[in-house]
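thread: overnight batch results

M.L. [08:02]
morning all. the overnight job finished for the chain we discussed friday. pasting input first so we're all looking at the same thing
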Amino acid sequence: IISPITIMGIVHIPRTAAAILRGTLKRRLSPLSDVEKSLVGMGPTNPHHVYSSRAGLLDVDVMLHMNNASYLTHAELARWEWTAFGGTLAANLRTKSYFIVAASMVRFRREVAPMRKFEIETMLGGIDDRNLWCYQTFHYGKDEGDDNNEGRGKVLAQVLTQGVITRKGKVISPRSWVEDNFPAATKDALDGLYMTSDERGNSLFGEKSSRFAHLEESLRKAAARHDDKVTKK
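M.L. [08:03]
and the structure it wrote out:
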């Protein structure tokens, strides 16, 4: 029997390494300045990071479309590529800090067919004193030699990820982390993403994160009630 650790080593780690390598190569080949690269994906007013892939054998299930779990896998790979391109990964390694996913929500709209090329647009949608919210959308990409553009550009799936930055096992302010590691232009962009709990409902993304926070709190309470029952047995 193949253990989950073995599967992780055979499948996931190489794919993660490949995503980091792609992001690093894109960074080296890009004509953008380091400041401009760090702004990619930094809110809706800057260019989104675009990750491209295909629904391959590791992604397709018996229904002959990309399995639901594969959306989260590719969303993670897209984030790895984005952090390598923008310089966030290098800053994490330099400061021994880590981005930790706290919660994710996926909304499926259209299926991805086997071997069909798709793209993921990634952006940082908002921050507060503790959390970051990363918003990603799946779209069909254009295959070379394929004149059929039907459905290209329409949203296939949406992923909203809530995460935190940790250092030495403690959660740190994402705003402070950026101010310590990135140019002033990036800090200005991030200031525009800063939200207090009262401001979340004032924008479309703020509404998304607010509802996400309510859902996360409800799930947290449900888990606490379950754990309380278990400890009393």
